Amino acid sequence: MALTAETESRLYRSLRAAAGAAAHLVALGFPTAVAVLARPGSSLFSWHPLLMALAFSFLMTEALLVFSPETSPLRSFSRKVRVRVHWALQLLALLCALLGLGVITYNKHLHGKAHFVTWHGLTGLLTVLYAGGQCAGGVLLLYPKLMKNWTLAKLKLYHATSGLVGYLLGCASLMLGMCSLWFTTSVTSVSWYLAMLCPLLTSLVIMNQVSNAYLYRKRSQH
């Protein structure tokens, strides 16, 4: 028996809501697991994985999910409020990422180790720099008059697209970090694969959210 268009639409919204709820759980659960594993305060290095997990798994994911029409905890609030919360979460994510980068850089300096010689290190550095640029670019959305030759719709589109690239970079950095000796020594077997699935799940949810927002904007223009 064929599904009606209304039933298909309801089923699709339900699946999106379930995926979004799972993304919220993973966004919080992953850094919690990293905190248990790293035991922050036990060493200088222990702060690095926690800060990076907070930045790119929790804060940045929640900063993007705040615009989700199905799972945003602020969906009943005005867009202006959600934009301000998005800004605050992104700035906190950038602060955590900068602190995490500073911790690992200083830790390597203390132990006489080379800096940024692994794929994880290089990707992490690129991600932090990109996040800083993305936050700076977001200022243009708060003050669109600074870009007189660009429409607000175009600025939003480019900001969302570049933000997605930055988020995927962050997920890639987390996944490369889970290939490090420290992580693979502590997390093995099925647990390692489950950990790797965490950034994959959230990235798929965020990609779906951004692509749907883009399609909605395109339809509204016609």
UniProtKB/TrEMBL annotation:
From the Swiss-Prot or TrEMBL record, give the protein name: ascorbate ferrireductase (transmembrane)
Q: How does it sit in the membrane?
A: Multi-pass membrane protein
Q: CDD domains attached here?
A: Cyt_b561_CYB561D2_like
Q: Where is the Cytochrome b561 domain?
A: 12-217
Q: List the cofactors.
A: heme b
UniProt keyword list = Electron transport, Heme, Iron, Membrane, Metal-binding, Transmembrane, Transmembrane helix, Transport
Per the UniProt entry, the Enzyme Commission number(s) are 7.2.1.3
Q: Which residues cross the membrane?
A: 17-38, 44-67, 87-106, 118-143, 164-184, 190-210
Query: Which enzyme class, named as a word?
Result: translocase
Which InterPro entries is this protein grouped with?
CYB561D1/2 (IPR045150), Cyt_b561/ferric_Rdtase_TM (IPR006593)
Report the GO terms under cellular component. Answer: endoplasmic reticulum; membrane
Localization of this protein: Membrane
**GO MF term set:** metal ion binding; transmembrane ascorbate ferrireductase activity; transmembrane monodehydroascorbate reductase activity
